[in-house]
Amino acid sequence: MSNFAGEEQSGQSIVRRATMDVAAAGTCTRSKRKRRLRCLTTRGISVNTSYSERFVERVLAVTSPQWLADELARTERRGYIFEPLRNLIAGLIDPAEATACDFGCGRGASTICLGRLGFQRVIGIDPKPEAVEIAKMRAQEWGLSSVLQFECLPDTLSSPFPSGHFDLVLCNAVLEHIPPSKRREHLTEIGRVLKHGGLLVVNGTPNRWFAFDGHTTKLWLVPYMPLRMACAYARLRGRVWGSGTVDDFVAAGIRGVSLLELRSYLPKKSFALELAPDRWVGQHYLQTSAARPDEGRLVDAAKVLLVRFAQVIAPALRPMGIPMTVFLPQLSMVFRKR
C-alpha cells in the first residue's frame, strides 16, 4: 500500500515524495492547518491517513480494501484533485465571491477540494444515498460542514435549483459514468443552473479519442470500438464489471467523452472554451496520474514523453481552439457560459 502523500514532476521523471504531512495550498482560504498522517489499522488493513477510524470503516463498508488508499488519497494528496483543479480555474473566477455545484459528487472528495479553494458555498449532488452520507462525514472531518452542503437527488436531470444559480459547476470524473444517450440531457440541465459568465469544469474524464482505456478495462483500442463490441472484448479479456452487462460496463465508465461530443452538447454560440496554459495541462495530467498506485518507471517515463509530445503539437492547434488535453488520456477543460 502506498505511503506517498505528495508527488511532483521533475525533469524527465515523476518524483514521488514520501511525507507525513498534507497541507492545503497557500492560496487556499480554508483548512490551512496541516493534517497529520498516522498509521491506522482497522479490519486488518493498515493505511497512512489523517481520517478518523470511524470514517475509514464507513468507507470500507462500501468499497473494497484495494481501493481504500485511492479513496483517501483524493483529498489527502494535493496533486490528485486539489492542485489540478486550482490551476484549471486560476484567474477565471474568484472563489470567495462564488457559489459552486459539484455535479455527481460521489463521496465528496472533489467537493472538499472546492471548499478548500475558498468558494463561498458549495453544493454537492449525487443519486446514491450512501455516497452522500460519506460525503457529509468527510466534510465534518475537514471542518467544512458550514460551507459544504450535500443533496441526494435520485433524478439528477431534475435539480431543485433555479436557473442561473451557480457561478461554477464541476463534473469531476463523472460524465463517463452517464450513459451516452443521457449526456445531452444532463449537460443541458447543468447549463440551465449555470449563470451567464459562469464556468463548467470537466475534469478527469477519459478521453474517447485516446487509444488506451486506462480507466475501466486497461485495454488498447477499446475507446475506438462500438460499445457492444468493446464490452464483449473486455469480457473476453477477463475484465468484468458487475454481472458483465453493457449497462454495468457503461456505469463503470467504459465509454469516455470526446471534445467533439462535448461541443455537440455545448455549442460555441452558448459556451466558450477557456484554453488553460499548456504547462498546467501537462502538469495536471502527471500529478493526477502520479497520485494513483505506482505503475512502474517505464510507464511513468512514457507519460512524460506523451506530455512533451502534446506540448510540441499544442501551440499549432491552439489558434483553432483545440486544447492540448485532447492528446492526453484524460480530458480537463473549462467552458464559460456566454
Give a verbal description of the structure.
The chain is of the alpha/beta class and 338 residues long. The protein folds into two domains: 4-208 and 256-337, Rossmann fold; 209-255, no CATH class. Helices cover 35% and strands 23% of the residues. It has eleven helices and 15 strands. The protein has helices spanning 53-60, 68-76, 82-89, 109-116, 129-141, 180-193, 227-236, 246-252, 259-265, 278-290, 297-317; strands at 4-10, 13-18, 21-22, 35-36, 38-42, 45-49, 99-103, 121-126, 148-152, 166-172, 194-206, 212-213, 219-220, 271-274, 330-337. The strands form five sheets. The chain has a seven-stranded mixed beta sheet with strand order 9-8-7-10-11-15-14. Strands 1-2 form a two-stranded antiparallel ribbon. Strands 3-4 form a two-stranded antiparallel ribbon. A hairpin with a 2-residue loop joins strand 5 and strand 6 (45-49). The radius of gyration is 19 Å and the shape is globular. The termini are far apart. The model is unreliable at 1-28 (pLDDT under 50).
Distance N terminus to C terminus?
A: 46 Å
CATH superfamily of the largest domain: Vaccinia Virus protein VP39
Write the element-wise H/E pattern from the N-terminal end onward. EEEEEEHHHEHEHEEHEEEHHHEHHE
Count of helix runs: 11
Whole-number tally of structural domains:
2
How many strand elements? 15
Main structural class: alpha/beta
**Biggest sheet: strands side by side, in what order?**
9-8-7-10-11-15-14
Globular, elongated, flat, extended or rod-shaped: what is the shape?
Answer: globular
CATH-scheme architecture of the largest domain:
3-Layer(aba) Sandwich
Which sheet architecture does the biggest sheet show? 7 strands, mixed
Q: What number is the mean pLDDT?
A: 88
Question: Which consecutive residue ranges, at least 5 long each, have pLDDT under 50?
Answer: 1-28
- CATH class label of the largest domain: Alpha Beta
Enter the CATH topology name of the largest domain.
Answer: Rossmann fold
